[in-house]
């Protein structure tokens, strides 16, 4: 299976924007909205990065991050979260949960092409020579 980036997003409009940007920059990306689906992908070792919408309505994104960090299904790729810029408490919770980077949605939109390119280049330690 090819390496891919996972976007944990349940906002259909924003998911479509992320998918289209990934297509434009030539980066494989899948969107998911369930923790189980994310865990299976990470366990398969094919995920080079995860982008998490911290405002998901279908799940508690911060709790998902805590769960991944405390009981990883495999080697965890970089975890990047985004939220509304006024959500300072959620920002702090996301950092404490272990996200590698947290940013406002507006910053994500501005940096999305470069972020996708950089996440697609990440390789797991299992891919690296000992």
Your description of this structure?
The chain is of the alpha/beta class. It has one domain: Rossmann fold (3-Layer(aba) Sandwich), CATH 3.40.50.2300. 47% of the residues lie in helices and 19% in strands. Strand 3, helix 3 and strand 4 form a beta-alpha-beta unit. The longest helix has 17 residues. It is globular, with a radius of gyration of 14 Å.
Brief descriptors of the model:
alpha/beta, 5 helices, 130 residues, single chain, Rossmann fold, five-stranded parallel sheet
* CATH architecture annotation: 3-Layer(aba) Sandwich
| Highest-level CATH class | Alpha Beta
Q: What is the CATH third-level topology name?
A: Rossmann fold
Evaluate the radius of gyration.
14 Å
Shape: globular
What structural category arises from helix and sheet content?
alpha/beta
How many helices? The count is 5
State the end-to-end distance: 22 Å
Please, what is the oligomeric state? single chain
Mean pLDDT: 90
Task: Summarize, please.
The chain has 130 residues and is an alpha/beta fold. It contains 5 helices and 5 strands, in the order βαβαβαβαβα.
Reconstruct the topology from this structure.
Blueprint: E1 4-8, H1 12-25, E2 29-32, H2 35-44, E3 47-53, H3 61-70, E4 79-83, H4 88-97, E5 101-104, H5 105-121
Parallel strand pairs: 1-2, 1-3, 3-4, 4-5
Helix pairs in contact: 1-5, 3-4
